[in-house]
Design goal:
This protein is of the alpha+beta class. Helices cover 15% and strands 31% of the residues.
Length: 316
């Protein structure tokens, strides 16, 4: 079995797939890739199934040695990757010869870069998923972020050996799938708890991602939302992308390692088609919210899924 040697792990590099759905009642959030669109496309570039485990790097990439031949793809944010000092294109497949070293630096766009390798990364599954759940220390590679000296196993590609042919994502598709800073949302379960004036503050304001944000949630700073008066809430189940309004009036967007229940009212929920954009938000990035109808949210997701499944997505 082929390996990847971790020479330098970067800031926060973890093994992720598309997560473990359906375990919220057990208190286990899905985890998975923060930008699932980037992971899915990376896997398609190297001939894997879309949910195959890859490496998610956050803000600063690592250095990796490939003792044997491999086929890789880098997607998501631009970490200015090099292979033995030669530039590696983003959103494209690349051939790695035995003994070569892949180096990634600090991000120049977005928050997370994904390394997909033909055959995928092989780790012990937890609840059917290879994703690392950092809060609980379960899944992924020993339930933690990578460290120097770790050895990642590469699986055997389903189609066996194939002659390398460079593949890349069509430019028009990348334009349509580009991360957004204006996040489209539908009304949350408690949106009617907030006055019209409070909702106007929420939808007209610009919010900044704080340094305290992580895979559990994105904390925002900006104009506080006037509290819903005279109403107390019992904790209930919460969903990925829910926008909670805390006691301070500031929003938190629940993310891939969210708690599965919460007692703050939810004014909105980021639509499914924009969830991947959350994974590319960096501290100090500024965002806004745009209210859309449920039917619009559904249409946007269907369009995105059609594009991700289309033959026109990948060239070569």
């Amino acid at each position: 079995m082929s390996l990847i040697e971790v020479r330098s792990p970067g800031m926060l590099s973890t093994v992720q797939d598309l997560g473990r759905e359906g375990f919220g009642p057990m208190g286990v959030s899905p985890s998975g890739a923060a930008d699932p669109v980037a992971l899915r496309i990376g896997n398609r570039l190297v001939g894997n199934s879309q949910g195959t485990a890859g490496l998610e790097m956050t803000l600063l990439g690592g250095t990796f040695i490939f003792p044997e031949h491999a086929e890789i793809a880098l997607t998501g944010a631009d970490f200015r990757a090099t292979l033995d000092n030669a530039h590696v294109d983003l959103w494209s497949s690349a051939e790695v010869r035995a003994g070569q070293t892949l180096r990634l630096g600090a991000t120049h766009t977005g928050a997370r870069c994904y390394l997909c390798v033909r055959g995928g990364l092989v780790v012990k599954l937890f609840l059917g998923s290879a994703s690392t759940h950092l809060l609980s220390g379960l899944g992924g590679f020993e339930g933690r972020a990578l460290r120097k000296g770790d050895l990642l196993k590469i699986g055997t590609a389903g189609g066996g050996f194939r002659t390398f042919r460079k593949r890349k994502v069509a430019a028009k598709a990348l334009e349509k799938l580009a991360p957004r800073k204006t996040l489209r949302v539908t009304g949350g379960p408690q949106s009617d708890w907030f006055s019209q004036a409070a909702q106007e503050v929420f939808y007209r304001s610009t919010y900044r991602i704080t340094e305290e944000s992580n895979r559990m949630g994105l904390r925002l700073e900006g104009p506080p939302i006037p509290a819903a008066s005279g109403v107390e809430m019992i904790s209930e189940g919460v969903s990925l992308g829910a926008v909670q309004i805390t006691a301070s009036g500031l929003p938190i967007i629940l993310f891939v390692e969210q708690q599965t229940t919460g007692g703050y009212p939810k004014i909105a929920n980021v639509i499914s088609a924009d969830l991947s954009s959350l994974g590319q938000l960096r501290p100090r990035d500024e965002i806004r919210f745009e209210l859309v109808e449920l039917e619009t949210a559904r249409t946007l997701l269907v369009e995105q899924e059609k594009l991700l499944a289309s033959q026109e997505l990948i060239l070569g």
